[in-house]
Amino acid sequence: MPVVCVVDSKRHLRTFLCEEIGGLGFVTRPCADATELAGLLDGGADVVVSRVSGEASDAIDVLTLLHTRRFKGDILLVGADDTMERVQNCGRQFSLAMLAPLGTPYRAVELHERLYKFLQSRPTRRPRGAAANPVQVADALRQQRFDIYYQSKVDTRRLAICGTEVALALRPTTEPTGGRLFRPTQDDQADLAELSAFALSRSVQDVSACVDDLGRAELTLNVPVFGQPDRRLVELADALMADHSAMPRLLFQIRARDLLAHASEFASVLGTIRRSTIGVSLDDVDVGQLPRGVFEDIPIVELKVNRSSLPEHDGDRRKHGRCSRILELARRHNLRTVATGVDASAGFSQARDAGFDMVQGPLFGVPVPRDKLARVLLPRQSGAA
């Protein structure tokens, strides 16, 4: 994971920044000044966050240190002080990589945007000529190399966390795996069913442990179903929901193209769902390709559409038409709608104005591990504008 050093003389501010940045999936290292930062740099850092205040001497000391140490990462300055321009000029003179400054540490959305752009700009670190080897799911499960990460869904009107989605991460071995977040590519259905069961069991336990005794009826957990459906997965979900009474609602997340490829099998397996707290979330939806009668045969309660499908301007008739058909279908069948991949405030506004119920994406945080899940699911405002 990327490492971020947070430099601030005020403990409460650097604690706040570390919590927000840590919630995005970064490893954070707090320090009070350039002297403490010098010791942390020995362990490596990808980003240094420094607050500018007063005469800005502390921030300039930090930049001077980074110049001396030939720091190759990015620098994010925080503060609305009049001396910000002077500090930025200092960084430019040192030829340091400066991200656009942040006016106040308490604008979480802007902080997320800055660091997300940093993540996008990072080159893929893979030796030349080395290709990612195919992952053997059965071996990785046996070696316990899979970790579960969680990404939040946010209500577009209340700006509150209303659900979370499972993402799988594969801890690397000596062989390159092609990335941290994992997407299966092999066709061994038995292994994929076992992987789905692993994600289901672990995530239900994690979320149940974070939900208070009263429960949160609006909270949903999206768990991916890989490959063809398996009746044992429905039986496992039923048993888990019975054992974890605090678990609000579980959704099997299925790609629309997988549903199309195995429509009758999915209808046979998922049609046996009887609990009102278990449903189906259909991902990457295209209305024109959905088979007839799918909403009668399968308990679909949610439609997910990628951010790239949202219209970016009034003249984008094709995307306007596609979104209108999806939203109309959702209203007709009383389904929730989610716009995924939202990475900027403009995308959030487009999804909200179009009529989507929820949004999801880097703007509201990258997938977080289990130890940060409880803080993410706290009933607090997400900070979007």
What can you tell me about this protein's structure?
The protein is an alpha/beta fold and 385 residues long. The chain folds into two domains: 3-121, Response regulator (Rossmann fold), CATH 3.40.50; 137-377, EAL domain (TIM Barrel), CATH 3.20.20.450. 38% of the residues lie in helices and 19% in strands. It is built from 14 helices and 14 strands. The strands form two sheets. An eight-stranded mixed barrel has the order 6-7-8-9-10-11-12-13, surrounded by four helices. Helix 7 (189-210) packs parallel to helix 8 (231-243). The longest helix has 22 residues, at 189-210. It is globular, with a radius of gyration of 23 Å. The model is unreliable at 124-133, 174-179 and 380-385 (pLDDT under 50).
Structurally, the number of domains stands at: 2
CATH secondary-structure class of the largest domain: Alpha Beta
Strand content: 15-25%
How does CATH name the architecture of the largest domain? Alpha-Beta Barrel
How much helix is in the residues?
A: 25-40%
Radius of gyration: 23 Å
CATH homologous superfamily classification of the largest domain: EAL domain
CATH topology of the largest domain: TIM Barrel
Beta strands, count:
14
Distance between the termini: 28 Å
Largest sheet entry: 8 strands, mixed, barrel
